[in-house]
């Protein structure tokens, strides 16, 4: 075994599902997400694709530590999330996962810099470090010239880039994106996808949930979900 292989083996996957499933209580009980295995290694770009009602939102809630599975084990960075209490799960989510949603969820009366800095309020970053960290994140997404702009003065693509900067500012293990181009025209969508490609090239682990096959094609791997069943797709 080479040194590189030994190091890779010693680093746990960012995401590991071991027979993870979620059933909502009834009556009657609803098996929203069937038990499955899934491993996402550090630095991968994985897309999860499926039509509306397929179970993508349930998968997002589990992967994002918003819902706990009712069976199996979910590990993030080697940490078994099922062994954690609510406060520890919340803290883990804040430190390890950066969320990007279809709707940008920016505070309208706060500048781009303030929107990004506010994301650090609850994850332990000292107050004096927040402005510099926010500037660094906005510069990373190409918005160093828009630090003081309000969301109403930004294009849709710029607003989504602010949202990505906000997701990156805590330096998470995983960038978890839910239909990140769903509210964008084709030009802005291409800009955002190019940014995700750049982040992945820099080593970020990216997980994109989408119904759009063109977006799904950006991933190095694609996983299909239908009727709550997750299946790895064969390479094109």
Walkthrough of the structure:
The chain is an alpha/beta fold and 236 residues long. 33% of the residues lie in helices and 25% in strands. It has eight helices and ten strands. A six-stranded mixed beta sheet has the order 6-7-8-3-9-10, sandwiched between helices. Strands 2-1-4-5 form a four-stranded antiparallel beta sheet, with helices on one face. α7 links the parallel β7 and β8. α5 packs across α6. The model has no long low-confidence stretch (mean pLDDT 91).
| Helix-strand topology string | HEEEHEEHEHHHEHEHEE
Alpha carbon gap, first and last residue: 31 Å
Helicity range: 25-40%
Which overall shape is indicated by the principal axes computed on the Cα atoms? globular
Major sheet characteristics: 6 strands, mixed
Helix/sheet category: alpha/beta
Which regions are unreliable across 5 or more consecutive residues at pLDDT < 50? none
Beta-strand portion reads 25-35%
Mean pLDDT: 91
What is the β-strand count?
10
Q: Largest beta sheet: what is the strand line-up?
A: 6-7-8-3-9-10
CA radius of gyration: 18 Å
Q: How many separate helices?
A: 8
């Amino acid at each position: 075994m080479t040194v590189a292989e030994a190091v890779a083996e010693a680093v746990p996957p960012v995401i590991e599902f071991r027979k993870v499933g979620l059933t909502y209580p009834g009556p009657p009980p609803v098996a929203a997400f069937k038990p499955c295995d899934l491993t996402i290694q550090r630095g991968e770009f994985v897309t999860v694709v499926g039509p509306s009602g397929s179970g993508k939102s349930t998968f997002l809630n589990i992967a994002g530590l918003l819902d706990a599975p009712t069976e199996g084990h979910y590990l993030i960075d080697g940490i078994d999330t099922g062994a954690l209490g609510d406060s520890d799960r919340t803290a883990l989510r804040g430190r390890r996962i950066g969320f990007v949603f279809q709707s940008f969820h920016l505070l309208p009366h706060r500048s781009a810099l303030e929107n990004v800095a506010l994301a650090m309020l609850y994850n332990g970053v000292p107050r004096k470090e927040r402005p510099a960290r926010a500037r660094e994140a906005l510069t990373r997404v190409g918005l160093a010239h828009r630090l003081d702009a309000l969301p109403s003065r930004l294009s849709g693509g710029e607003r989504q880039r602010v949202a990505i900067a906000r997701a990156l500012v805590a330096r998470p293990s995983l960038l978890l994106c839910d239909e990140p181009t769903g509210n964008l025209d084709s030009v802005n969508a291409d800009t955002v996808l190019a940014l995700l490609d750049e982040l992945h090239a820099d080593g970020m682990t990216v997980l994109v949930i989408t119904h759009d096959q063109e977006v799904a094609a950006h991933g190095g791997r694609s996983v299909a979900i239908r009727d709550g069943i997750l299946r790895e797709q064969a390479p094109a």
